[in-house]
Amino acid sequence: MRALANVVYRRPITETFHEFLVYILAIRLWNKWFSEQEVSSKQHFIYKCYSEYNKWKIDGVWKNPSETRIAMQPNGYVLCLTQLAYDIVSLVQTSNLESSKLIRKFKEFISFQWTRYEVAIAWIFARLWFKIEFLDKWKQSEKHCEFNASSKELWTTISVEAKSKHRNWVLHQNWLFVLPKDVMWDIIGLIGDALTQNPNKNGFIVFVDLNLPNFTQDEWQNHIKTNISQIINKKYEKELLGINALVITNFSSHYFESNVVPNWNYLIILPHKPSFEIPVLFYEMLENVLGNYNIIPDLERI
Questions:
Q1: Global pTM value
Q2: Would you tell me which of 65, 164, 176, 262 could form a disulfide with 117, CB atoms 3.0–4.6 Å apart?
Q3: pLDDT tens per residue across span 60-116
Q4: Domain ranges in the chain?
């Protein structure tokens, strides 16, 4: 038996925690959808990960026929699937996933990437025990961010905008992928678009994901640190000064497919004079959770 939020599930006694995560993901996405994907000529990335996850498990059993629990290093597909499942389960457990529209957007090829990143960032706030209010239901003509996150313990509400850079031939995109020569200029449009969503009612934080393959942390961080002042001052200086933080991440396990995935990396940029103050403790908590985003308990034992 396993409990999640206010529901108890009767599950096989041999099922691992990670298998339960994937089971909950399948329920949320609807089992019939998985069956339809199996025979589809154009399979969704989630189903591709699910299929590779099953192959990975079978391969582990074949190599270790006498073991009831298998210890193996997860590859890119496995990490993508289990991380998504863990994010969804965490949001359900903290009562932060009431939006069926959000789940529907996962199944759509065009909206999958940015919806996936939105959920990843929502998970980060849920881990900090913030209450999440997704703003999908707001009128499209009104300016609004992805969600509001509120904490009674910190006496604060933060508006959050999340953007993920689309790359050609990556996550359902259809053109040839080219590694950008200038990382900062490559995402400046996303940053500018995100800054326009500031509701100017409370603290505001922008998250932007580079969506790049095996860039070392020093490579892209040094490039952004060197160039951001010049670029921001030219284009978005006024808008940037009013926010509390710009967080740039590179969550890119989908590039590694059958290979071992390195640790994620991120960069937090704090403007000097935000319009609304956020407790200093929050930034310490945020950095800790960001640094541990890809850590799923006991993931090597599936």
A1: 0.84
A2: 164
A3: 655 555 566 666 777 888 888 888 899 888 888 887 666 567 777 777 777 788 788
A4: 2-291
